[in-house]
């Protein structure tokens, strides 16, 4: 009960937020409502006119051609007005919907740009993307349908009722009494089929999971000759799916025949009462024809509205998910008095730094480090020991829990993120390149760089020779997945990207594997060139890099366990010594 | 497409009866306006209340019969469609399972999965809708026209003009909007791409302070998407008003012609009402038909994608197990047991321009450890993939136990070989279930033995449920190293003659990697082991090291001989162990 109440509150809240977005387009909303009302009124007027025309056609020699002509002329005018009103209404609704979702998408994306890394790292990309794309799209559908059908639907119901009452009360009562049966039937079927559909989608999910496993890892399945077993499992689920799918499909397909049947009951009911009152002289044949049209029209919006309501509920649920993202706490903004870090000398110090990703789990406790300008710091440790945590802190992707990180004596939280980050050149192992040309990618840090500067940087990082050989050279477009370049080539491009700006401090992440030796030697050379005279932090895997470092940080399980230079650490005979020696044992 | 119709064959009865009952229902529906016309012309005109009530009872009867036939039709349609989909899915799964690596590479697994799931679902609803509506809608449209003709030829001419006009408008607008919506989709993909990029590249983009620029970039794409959406929406917004004008225009003409005919005594007032009723039935059905055609087009596209998979045959043929046993070939491998020989083997992948392996020639004796090293793309994995015949050589031979791998039934060949793939893949279920992939009836002690060898015993023992620990899909609840050790155990449970470790120690730290190699070496079964690695330290102590460079053997021999004579090996080794380190270590 409490839960239900809360859900309702969320719904109301979401609705209010949606209204806020719509309010900006109030003019079109007003226009749309006015024209919707006009459309409904005019549409309902036509059957009456048609009825009047029919009443002027009684039989041979009893046709009032003048009357018919007059009525038909009016009908033509009404038709033209109706279609115009309909068109204007549709255009307004389109405009409102697509502008509203444009605004929502823009806000959602804007939020992504200022979300803390903590949020982005802890949510799957797919989930965030689906909020911005799929949820917004679904919301648009619901909104559009709501605008076009909900209002006109309600208007039609009341309008029809009003018009019918004007003509004849008794027949109206027949319509009003029988129509709910169709709604009742529809909702009865929907309720019954809900659990069937749930079962169907669960079974489908189960089957998809199996398919993903078996087909996705077919090479393993074949290597172990497991095909028959998999097929057996598949057939079992497939059989269950067939059964529940048949039930769901069949029972849900009963809605249309049932409502159609009830509609035909309404039609007959109108026919019988109408005909009997016509015999009694209560109404004319034309009015009966008009009633028959109304009877057909009256049930339609009921069915539509129940569809619209589910669609709207769905849309509100989607909107709630989008707003969740939009209202997510952004990263702490830069302080108003934050200074700009320019021409950093490269003195980096960490003072009693404490940090962890989640409050309950201790990670880095009391981390102290002092790096003088130009020094090299190697970060080593087994895979998954959290070497990237240090990068996260230095770049201020994450903020420390307590303690201070200073660059050239200023705490990094007292400077703008922009100036701090542009003082670092970063090359990550995860070679991310954007979907665009090679030139665009290299010039990411300095979009205004001249052609010669770009080529110069590529030469310095040994990337020029392979770029030159690509079919379109620097204009080669990198595919979204970067499949047209090898891992090593991608890494070289990432290095070139930094080479072009060459900031005073560097963060480098050495590749562990999957790069061929020749390319790797090039990368090493490029790294060495960059590091000349710059304070550098290197996540290192290669012994030569580690040995040449001024300071080695040894990490284990996310924490810094040892610190010192190569000789000193070997002497200490601790974790580092163990790690180092294991490379040489059998 | 034709190929898929086979799966409807078992539902021939349903596929015929479904549409039949649907048409029956439609016929009853078409009779209603006529009955109503009779009510007006006979009942009201003659003031015959009894007649009115009788006619209305007939209408109720028509409704009930209509309901019954339509329920029957829905059942048959659902049964045929669901049965069809079930059959197609089963055939697809079994077909895909039989495809070889070559076909899987060309088709791609993710497409296979969508084809088996959403494509089949689309095809199912396509079949369902077709059986239900494809005949019904045209039947009602033309039925209405036919009924109009039975009333009066002149008035029916209005139908003859209106139906094509209306169809042209309905289908024309639909056709015009399809490319527009495709454009909208492309615009949406661009917006999606930018969003994705900003998540996957968040660190780089923030490091380069691109936030403002990215926002502008997104806005631009967002704006152009909105423009396209509004334009497409504006065109499809024409549908309602235009059809409205046509239909009501037709009604106006109908009444005018009707008036003249009634005046001449050719038709009655009630018949005019019936004509107007028929006209209004047409529009609803035409719109249904247009929507149906979209569904069918989509379903057909899906069906074509499905049959494309079914048309792809396996490029690999192997003798059947029974024939092989009957030919008495089972005993042949005796003295050659455990040997693997590459006899001038070359491999060219399908559609590739050049060979991935060229003229590989060497022999591994039983119990030997063979190290395979080389840069990325040098063909290391390709080489070991030839042993269990995941791919076929393009020339030369690969022999296992002295017999060409192509002469074995695949299940026999693969039962001799334990493969630990590069990617550590586990399946949902317990650790026990996963280990049994290697051997269906493995006992607990056999499993623990394998776990011990693969250095996994310790962590499995630590778990509360031991062998019954549940593994989530993709093994997400285990670390990379743990997964890798379990995949090694899975291959060892099999007690293979030949073990292939395809760069499978990459997630292990150096110490564990070394222990694992030591344990395998100490096994009494004398396995022939192939180790593929990027790390010189992993293969340094192998009996033979095969150095690959760009698909060719750059050198074969022991560590020390290669270090002396093979420049590629030297380059690799010294890049990982600089000269001075070796002296120190």
Automatic annotation (TrEMBL), chain A:
Domain ABC transmembrane type-1 residue range list: 31-314
Origin superkingdom: Bacteria
Keyword Nucleotide-binding (UniProt): yes
Keyword Transmembrane helix included in the entry's annotation: yes
InterPro entries hit by this protein: AAA+_ATPase (IPR003593), ABC1_TM_dom (IPR011527), ABC1_TM_sf (IPR036640), ABC_transporter-like_ATP-bd (IPR003439), P-loop_NTPase (IPR027417), Type_1_exporter (IPR039421)
Chief location: membrane
Keywords on record: ATP-binding, Membrane, Nucleotide-binding, Transmembrane, Transmembrane helix, Transport
Membrane topology: Multi-pass membrane protein
Compartment list: Cell membrane
Residue intervals of the ABC transporter domain: 348-582
Recorded GO CC terms: plasma membrane
Transmembrane segments: 25-50, 70-89, 143-165, 171-190
Record GO terms (molecular function): ABC-type oligopeptide transporter activity; ATP binding; ATP hydrolysis activity
Residue ranges of coiled coil: none
Name the UniProt record assigns to this protein: ABC transporter ATP-binding protein/permease
From TrEMBL, chain B:
UniProt keyword annotations, A-Z: ATP-binding, Cell membrane, Membrane, Nucleotide-binding, Transmembrane, Transmembrane helix, Transport
SUPFAM superfamilies recorded: ABC transporter transmembrane region, P-loop containing nucleoside triphosphate hydrolases
GO terms under cellular component: plasma membrane
Membrane-crossing segments per the record: 20-40, 52-71, 133-151, 157-181, 237-259
One example GO MF annotation: ATP hydrolysis activity
Coiled-coil zones: none
Localisation per UniProt entry: Cell membrane
SMART domains per UniProt: AAA
Annotated ranges, domain ABC transmembrane type-1: 16-298
Domain ABC transporter: 340-575
Gene3D superfamilies: ABC transporter type 1, transmembrane domain, P-loop containing nucleotide triphosphate hydrolases
Pfam families recorded: ABC_membrane, ABC_tran
Family annotation (InterPro entries): AAA+_ATPase (IPR003593), ABC1_TM_dom (IPR011527), ABC1_TM_sf (IPR036640), ABC_transporter-like_ATP-bd (IPR003439), ABC_transporter-like_CS (IPR017871), P-loop_NTPase (IPR027417), Type_1_exporter (IPR039421)
Topology of the protein relative to the lipid bilayer: Multi-pass membrane protein
This protein's name: ABC transporter ATP-binding protein/permease
Organism: Lientehia hominis
Upper taxonomic lineage: Bacteria, Bacillati, Bacillota, Clostridia, Lachnospirales
């Amino acid at each position: 009960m409490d839960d239900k109440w809360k859900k309702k509150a969320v719904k109301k809240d979401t609705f209010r937020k949606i209204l806020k977005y719509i309010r900006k387009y109030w003019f079109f909303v007003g226009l749309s409502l006015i024209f919707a009302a006009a459309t409904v009124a005019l549409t309902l007027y036509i059957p009456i006119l048609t009825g009047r025309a029919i009443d002027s056609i009684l039989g041979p020699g009893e046709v009032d051609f003048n009357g018919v002509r007059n009525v038909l002329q009016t009908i033509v005018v009404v038709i033209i007005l109706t279609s115009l009103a309909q068109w204007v209404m549709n255009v307004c609704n389109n405009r409102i919907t697509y502008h509203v979702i444009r605004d929502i998408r823009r806000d959602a994306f804007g939020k992504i740009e200022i979300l803390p890394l903590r949020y982005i790292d802890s949510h799957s990309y797919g989930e965030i993307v689906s909020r911005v794309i799929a949820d917004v799209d679904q919301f648009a559908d619901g909104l559009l349908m709501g605008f076009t059908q909900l209002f006109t639907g309600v208007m039609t119901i009341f309008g029809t009722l009003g018009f019918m009452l004007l003509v004849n009360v008794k027949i109206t009562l027949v319509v009003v009494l029988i129509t709910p049966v169709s709604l009742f039937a529809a909702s009865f079927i929907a309720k019954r089929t809900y659990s069937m559909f749930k079962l169907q989608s669960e079974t489908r999910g189960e089957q998809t999971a199996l398919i993903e496993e078996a087909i996705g890892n077919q090479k393993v399945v074949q290597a172990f000759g497991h095909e028959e077993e998999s097929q057996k499992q598949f057939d079992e689920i497939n059989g269950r799916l067939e059964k529940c799918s048949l039930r769901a499909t069949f029972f849900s397909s009963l809605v249309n025949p049932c409502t159609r049947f009830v509609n035909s009951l309404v039609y007959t009911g109108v026919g019988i009462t109408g005909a009997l009152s016509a015999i009694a002289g209560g109404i004319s044949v034309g009015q009966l024809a008009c009633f028959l049209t109304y009877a057909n029209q009256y049930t339609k919006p009921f069915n539509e509205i129940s569809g619209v309501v589910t669609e709207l509920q769905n849309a509100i649920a989607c909107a709630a998910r989008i707003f969740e993202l939009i209202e997510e706490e952004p990263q702490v903004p830069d302080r108003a008095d934050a200074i700009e870090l320019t021409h950093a000398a490269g003195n980096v110090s960490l003072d009693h730094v404490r940090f962890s990703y989640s409050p309950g789990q201790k990670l880095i406790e009391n981390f102290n480090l002092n790096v003088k300008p130009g020094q090299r710091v190697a970060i080593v440790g087994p895979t998954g020991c959290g070497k990237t945590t240090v990068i996260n802190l230095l770049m201020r992707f994450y903020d420390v829990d307590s303690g201070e990180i200073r660059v050239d004596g200023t705490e990094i939280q007292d400077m703008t993120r922009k100036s701090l980050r542009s003082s670092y050149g970063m090359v990550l192992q995860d070679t991310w390149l954007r979907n665009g040309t090679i030139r665009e990618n290299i010039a990411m840090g300095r979009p205004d760089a001249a052609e010669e500067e770009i080529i110069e940087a590529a030469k310095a990082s040994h990337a020029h020779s392979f770029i030159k050989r690509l079919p379109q050279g620097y204009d080669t477009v990198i595919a979204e997945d970067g499949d047209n370049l090898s891992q090593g080539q991608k890494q070289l491009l990432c290095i070139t990207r930094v080479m072009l700006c060459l900031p005073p401090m560097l963060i480098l992440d050495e590749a562990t594997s999957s790069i061929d030796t020749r390319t790797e030697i090039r990368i090493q050379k490029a790294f060495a060139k960059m590091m000349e005279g710059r304070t550098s932090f290197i996540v290192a895997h290669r012994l030569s890099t580690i040995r040449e470092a001024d300071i080695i940080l040894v990490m284990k399980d996310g924490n810094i366990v040892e610190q010192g230079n190569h000789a000193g650490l070997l002497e200490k005979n601790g974790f580092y010594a163990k790690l180092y020696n294991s490379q040489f044992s059998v | 497409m034709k190929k898929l119709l086979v799966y409807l064959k078992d539902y021939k009865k349903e596929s015929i009866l479904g549409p039949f009952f649907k048409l029956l229902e439609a016929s009853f529906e078409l009779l209603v306006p006529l009955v109503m016309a009779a009510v007006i012309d006979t009942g009201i005109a003659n003031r015959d209340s009894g007649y009115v009530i009788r006619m209305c009872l007939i209408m109720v009867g028509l409704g009930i019969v209509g309901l019954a036939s339509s329920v029957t039709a829905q059942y048959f349609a659902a049964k045929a469609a669901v049965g069809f989909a079930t059959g197609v899915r089963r055939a697809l799964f079994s077909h895909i399972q039989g495809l070889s690596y070559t076909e899987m590479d060309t088709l791609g697994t993710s497409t296979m999965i969508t084809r088996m799931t959403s494509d089949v679902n689309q095809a199912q609803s396509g079949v369902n809708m077709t059986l239900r509506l494809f005949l019904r809608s045209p039947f009602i449209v033309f039925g209405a026209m036919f009924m109009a003709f039975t009333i009066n030829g002149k008035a029916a001419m209005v139908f003859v003009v209106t139906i094509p006009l209306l169809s042209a408008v309905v289908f024309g607008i639909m056709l015009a909007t399809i490319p527009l919506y495709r454009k909208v989709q492309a615009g949406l993909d661009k917006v999606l791409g930018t969003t994705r990029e900003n998540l996957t590249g968040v660190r780089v983009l923030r490091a380069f302070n691109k936030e403002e620029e990215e926002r502008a970039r997104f806005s631009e794409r967002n704006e152009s998407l909105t423009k396209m959406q509004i334009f497409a929406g504006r065109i499809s917004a024409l549908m309602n008003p235009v059809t409205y004008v046509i239909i009501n225009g037709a009604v106006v003409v109908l009444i005018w012609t009707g008036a003249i005919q009634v005046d001449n005594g050719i038709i009655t007032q009630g018949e005019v009402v019936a004509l107007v009723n028929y006209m209004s039935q047409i529009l609803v059905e035409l719109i249904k038909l247009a929507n149906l055609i979209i569904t069918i087009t989509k379903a057909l596209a899906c069906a074509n994608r499905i049959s494309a998979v079914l048309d792809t045959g396996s490029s690999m043929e192997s003798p059947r197990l029974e024939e092989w046993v009957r030919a008495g070939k089972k005993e042949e491998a005796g003295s050659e047991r455990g040997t693997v020989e590459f006899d001038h083997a070359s491999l060219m992948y399908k559609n590739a321009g050049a060979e991935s392996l060229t003229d590989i020639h060497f022999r591994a004796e039983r119990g030997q450890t063979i190290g395979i090293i080389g840069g990325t793309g040098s063909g290391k994995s390709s080489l070991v993939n030839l042993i269990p015949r995941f791919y076929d050589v393009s020339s030369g031979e690969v022999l296992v136990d002295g017999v060409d791998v192509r002469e074995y039934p695949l299940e026999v060949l693969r039962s001799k070989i334990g493969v630990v793939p590069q990617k550590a893949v586990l399946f949902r279920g317990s650790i026990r279930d996963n280990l049994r992939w290697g051997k269906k009836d493995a006992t607990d002690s056999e499993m623990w033995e394998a776990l011990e060898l693969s250095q996994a015993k310790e962590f499995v023992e630590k778990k509360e449920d031991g062998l019954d620990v549940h593994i989530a899909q993709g093994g997400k609840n285990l670390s990379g190293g743990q997964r890798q050790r379990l995949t090694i155990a899975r291959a060892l449970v099999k007690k293979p003659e030949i073990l292939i470790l395809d760069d499978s120690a990459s997630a292990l730290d150096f110490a564990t990697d070394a222990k694992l190699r030591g344990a395998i070496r100490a096994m009494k079964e004398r396995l022939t082991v192939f180790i593929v690695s990027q790390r010189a330290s992993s293969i340094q102590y192998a009996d033979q090291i095969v150095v690959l460079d760009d698909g060719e053997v750059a050198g074969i021999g022991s560590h020390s001989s290669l270090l002396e004579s093979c420049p590629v090996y030297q380059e690799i080794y010294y890049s990982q162990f600089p000269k001075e380190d070796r002296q120190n270590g």
